[in-house]
Amino acid sequence: MTQVKICGLKYRPDIEVAVANGAEMIGFVFAPSKRQVTPNQARILAQHIPNSVKKVGVFVNESPAEINRIAAMVPLDIVQCHGQETAADLAKINRPTIKAFQVKHGKINGDLTAFPDSLILLDAPIAGLGETFDWQAIVNSELPKERLIIAGGLHIDNVAAAIEQFQPFAVDVSSGVETNGTKDPEKIIKFIQKAKES
């Protein structure tokens, strides 16, 4: 069954809804974003997350030393890197990693094979805008499905199709479970249900 990551969470009630309804991963954004939290905010929120749910920190071009500091403080279970980080950078992070790749004009922006030890996340050209990438342009046979996370423009009405298309390890949603820029408990619940039914 496909795992679900609810990303960009800032408030305890939203986290509680996600956890209670079966999300396997909770994402905290530390990079500049309207969904950004401070390490201390994440640390307080993380205290209420059961050990069975993975706490994921999202970073963009942050130094491995700073990532490790924040990962220990929160504490994080997984580190997600969304910038130009290299495999050498990720090797210095003392947590399991997710490496994000943008899909532009039907092409994956980077070399997936350079990150054999990381989960691989495919995202839209600009993360967080709620736009999908061109699913049909990606050659499925070349994707490491057991390590694959699909993100970018997922919502209640298309998550089942994304899972059918890619058979991924996990799906990742942020803006797709928001209403007017804030997390919507009903959308979180329905998104997880749709993903789990697929």
From TrEMBL:
What is the name attached to this protein's record? N-(5'-phosphoribosyl)anthranilate isomerase
User: GO terms for biological process?
Assistant: L-tryptophan biosynthetic process
Q: In which pathway does it act?
A: Amino-acid biosynthesis; L-tryptophan biosynthesis; L-tryptophan from chorismate: step 3/5
Supply the CDD domains for this chain: PRAI
**Which transformation does this protein catalyse, written as a reaction?**
N-(5-phospho-beta-D-ribosyl)anthranilate = 1-(2-carboxyphenylamino)-1-deoxy-D-ribulose 5-phosphate
**Taxonomic superkingdom:** Bacteria
User: Matching Pfam families, A to Z?
Assistant: PRAI
Q: What keywords were assigned to this record? A: Amino-acid biosynthesis, Aromatic amino acid biosynthesis, Isomerase, Tryptophan biosynthesis
Source organism lineage? Bacteria, Bacillati, Bacillota, Bacilli, Bacillales
- GO MF, any single term: phosphoribosylanthranilate isomerase activity
Q: Which organism is it from?
A: Listeria cornellensis FSL F6-0969
Q: Return the InterPro entries for the record.
A: Aldolase_TIM (IPR013785), PRAI_dom (IPR001240), RibuloseP-bd_barrel (IPR011060), TrpF_fam (IPR044643)
Record-annotated N-(5'phosphoribosyl) anthranilate isomerase (PRAI) domain positions: 4-194
| Enzyme Commission code | 5.3.1.24
Protein family according to the UniProt entry:
Belongs to the TrpF family.
